Amino acid sequence: MxxxxxLCQRLRETLSASRSKALLQVVVGPDFxxxxxxxxxxxxxxxxxxxxxxxxxxxxxxxLLLPHSSELFLLQLGLVLAGRIPGILAWPTSRVxxxxxxxxxxxxLGNLPVDLLVTLxxxxxxxxxxxxxxxxxxxIENASSFEKVFPAGAVSxxxxxxxxxxxxxxxxxxxxxxxxSGGTTGAxxxxxxxxxxxxxQLDTLGQTLQFGAGxxxxxxxPLYHDMGLIACYWLPLWSGARSIQISxxxxxxxxxxxxxxxxxxxxxxxxxxxxAFAYLSxxxxxxxxxxxxxxxxxxxxxxxxxRARSIEGFCAAFGGWGVRRESVQASYAMAETVFAxxxxxxxxxxxxxxxxxxxxxxxxxxxxxxxSDEVYVSSGKPLTDTExxxxxxxxxxRGDANPGEIYVRTPSLFSGYWGAQGFQQHSLKDGxxxxxxxxxxxxxxxxxxxxxxxxxxxxxxxxxxxxVEAVVNTIGGIYxxxxxxxxxxxxxxxxxxxxxxxxxxxxxxxxxxSQIEASIRKLVLTDIGIAPRYVAVVPQRWIVKSxxxxxxxxxxxxxxxxxxxxxGE
Length: 569
What we know:
Layout: H1 4-17, E1 22-26, E2 36-39, H2 40-51, E3 61-65, H3 70-81, E4 85-88, H4 98-111, E5 116-119, H5 121-128, E6 135-137, H6 143-148, H7 152-159, E7 175-180, E8 190-194, H8 195-209, E9 216-219, H9 226-239, E10 242-245, H10 248-253, H11 255-265, E11 269-272, H12 274-283, E12 298-302, H13 308-318, E13 328-333, E14 340-343, E15 352-354, E16 375-377, E17 381-382, E18 387-391, E19 404-409, E20 416-419, E21 422-425, E22 433-442, E23 445-451, E24 456-458, E25 461-463, H14 465-472, E26 478-490, E27 495-504, H15 510-528, E28 534-538, H16 553-565
Parallel strand pairs: 1-10, 3-4, 3-5, 5-6, 9-10, 11-12, 12-13, 27-28
Antiparallel strand pairs: 1-2, 7-8, 8-20, 13-14, 14-17, 15-16, 18-19, 19-22, 20-21, 22-23, 24-25, 26-27
Helix pairs in contact: 1-2, 2-3, 4-7, 12-13, 14-15
């Protein structure tokens, strides 16, 4: 465990020891082939120099509302070294629902007690009059093009009546920075990451992965996401290793760009959410060149339940380019624990367990287990000094292959959120955090099924939305990864009905939509054993996504109820 001062000193020593080594490469347009490069010395000097331009009180909270740029990477690091507490806000992308993004940003800007907001110049002018704290503009290359896509007017209009209580905004001496939860179940919460939490995470994760100065991380994950900030930026910095950073927008538009930089930079680690494995596989046939990917020791599937089909498709698509089956790994992580909770064993195939062998509680029907994915995939074993237990609805501790809510206890566990009244202590049960995720343990390995609150109970049977979505994603005409399943209350029968919303790949005719809906009903009934009462096939971008790019089941359900069910469509 380290104090803030000890952590910053350790980091300065690591950067100074790599003074002539290129540690950070930031890929930005228009020349995507020539990243902006920083050695350990230039990274330290420029980060501290940039941060010195923004003065606040000691341990003042500074929000950063900036697009992917070298300045964002520098400023986050520099503010930490300067004793300030930065928090990176999400920048809008093509993957995120605009209204969802605006609501989340308005909530953060209007409810967090902060000392300063740093954003692009024109946005600073637009937002300054609506906020009770200073707003400063930072000029970056191509700022005007980024400002064009930002909904400044809509955001500032909603901020006009916001009030922030600054009376209790003092942060602890140990606080380093804020990072935000995923936001799939509502507005993102700001988690206070301390020096002791961060150092415990980085030391343990580095040891588990045998991660060292000779490694290199390639990432398209944004810094406002814990996977991008911790695994892909801070872990390399802490270890004196390299990282190559491209933007999420550029990756979505041209995933081959990401692979080309892995090849060129000889990257050894890549963290990706499960959907990215499937997306890369689908885009393989559109890629024009051949890329050598054998340098990657671990492609780590993280942040979503791990799907066997996604892994198998990825290995099949890129095996000819050097991707080995044993290089595909898995991790279970969350912002509340800084990042990783579990990690699979390197250079070994992921453990699996047949779905049919997992207990279902009081009712042991085969529902939701006889799927195209016939196995659950392990997310690995807990990191050193991290404990995981499975708790049933009756608060009993579940045994092997018996699902329940996942609880975690770790030195990296957070102690509270940064909210409207400053720091707000988070209640724990004997040091354990109830994650809200549903899963089970077998032979010490954790298997994640999905969100506990998302389980749909139809006639006494538990149906997991993730299972329904995996089945529907196999249907032709469905946009891969854009399916949402959820429960709708049936007051007449005192139970829930299953609803499925799926986006089409193209502008489908009414006849094609009807055929797809019929296919969904038939396949879900056949594979899950429950007939969906509601099926809606919708155009692309209809489904609501969070600022982290994840599907927001709650807000998609709300939109469905309002626009489809209540409207009588």
